[in-house]
Amino acid sequence: MRTIDVISGPIAEPITLNDAKLQLGFGPMQDSDRAASQVLNDKLRGFIAAAREYCEGFCRRVFITQTWQYQLDDLIPELLLPKPPFQSIVFFTYVDTFGATQTLTQDTSYGTNPAAPFYGYQLQRGSGMQPARLVPPWARPWAPQLRVPANTIVRFRCGYGGPITCSMTAGAKLLTVTGGAPLTFDLDDAPLLPAETGLPIFVSGAGAASGFSPINGQMVSGGLFSNIASVNPTNGQATLAAAATSTVTNVPGWAGRPIPARITAAIRLLVEYFYENGAASDSDMPRIVERLLRPYRNDVA
Q1: Type and span of the H or E element at 212
Q2: What is the pTM of this model?
Q3: I want to staple 132 with a disulfide (CB 3.0 to 4.6 A). Which of 36, 63, 86, 187 is the partner?
Q4: 3-state class of 277 per DSSP?
Q5: Helix (H), strand (E) at residue 199
């Protein structure tokens, strides 16, 4: 038996309230009455969440960074992790033949390093379209397990990316990330993890580069576009591949890749459909939504 459970969901939605209002043709007049604007905002928040969940369900993937847990009754020849795009493994445990929980570590030597633990796993990260694969190191088996329910657990992070709040000092590569719940560093909700080396990072105002912001898809100047070189496992501070050119404190940032424009367009159209047809409508979803999402549908895991 296999089960999949969410540990921590997205901390934001792929589109904003303003995105939804623009899709519906609303302008400043609709926000002039505070009470009416609050009613509209509450309704649209529900529609945005429902539209995102529908699109995630159709695509069989997640969009904003989330943490999920995959439980199995045994180790099969290869594990395909659901909910792509994959980001990182939080932990990979199994119950050994003595009933003790053991942790498997990644073997990046393809089984050629004699000093590596005999039991481990190799990781093929997959892509934005394909799920990640976990297999035993080359020429080695999976570790022997006790035949008990849910004897294998893989907790992992997935999604294209997500918003972060960043601070950096000019001339330094150290990135401090604040936020999350709770505010202290914890593997279940840490903004960044040690295994996320290479993850793209964008920090508003910390650089001199111009490009499309993954936060809102708009062209920006003065941003820092870089990658994670390493993450401190104690406090979650990341060292980037490039240094900041300006000092910034608690500015918006993005960890990961931008969400494809076809996906955000589908979510906006679905919010418009919910608004115009009512939340209780059981009619078929607009065909254009599925056409936009079809290239991103995961039919593998």
Answers
A1: strand 209-212
A2: 0.86
A3: 86
A4: helix
A5: none
